Amino acid sequence: MAGRASAFAVLQPTAPAAAVRRPPLAADTGAVTVEAALALCALTIFLALALGTLTAVAQTMRCTDAARELARLAARGEPDRGRAVAARLAPSGARLELMQDGDTVTATVSLRLTGSLPMMVSGRAVAALETAAVP
Known about the structure:
Elements: H1 2-11, H2 15-20, H3 31-75, H4 79-89, E1 95-101, E2 104-112, E3 120-128
Antiparallel strand pairs: 1-2, 2-3
């Protein structure tokens, strides 16, 4: 029986082998924290650019609507009323321009954006001058 006991003792794991085993993230020295911080920064920048883009599109649409009304009313012979309507439709701080070239009028409404996307947006409309109705 002595032979069996010695063979059994050889097959058992020894204590030093168990001491070598480390937790799975023991070599991690903060890399996950740095990666998470970089991901949050990238997400913040992406959201700021997306919000700025949506704002720019919305302001461009407002400028285009204001330019359309200004050109339409100026073509009918009511440029002062057109400026008043366009000023209400345009974003605050927008610049209104009205030019007549031959038998057309061109209205341009522009606005300098601030914030995450500092840029200039504008809307432009052209209308043919209406002639007075002859009875």
